[in-house]
Amino acid sequence: MARLFAIVAAVSVLTLPTFVCADKTVRDRNGSLVKTWHDRNGSIDVRDRNGSLKETRTYRNGSVDIRDRNGTLIGTEKYDRSRH
Fold first, then answer.
1. Count of domains forming the chain
2. In this predicted structure, what is the pLDDT of residue 76?
3. pTM given for the model
């Protein structure tokens, strides 16, 4: 029984990053695509329904830098990893 628990725990730990870093989509009530998030090496690209880049979010030391499609900083958010 302990061996089974250890195997399940190991598989869970190894597959967790796959679910956490998976691409995400937002759809309206009719099912039309509104936004997509794509994670690439600690930076997340947010794109509109046409695939155009809207903003890039980069995680750094407990905060998130938000930049527009031209790379201009438009905001910073605090991020607490213990809550996510």
1. 1
2. 92
3. 0.56
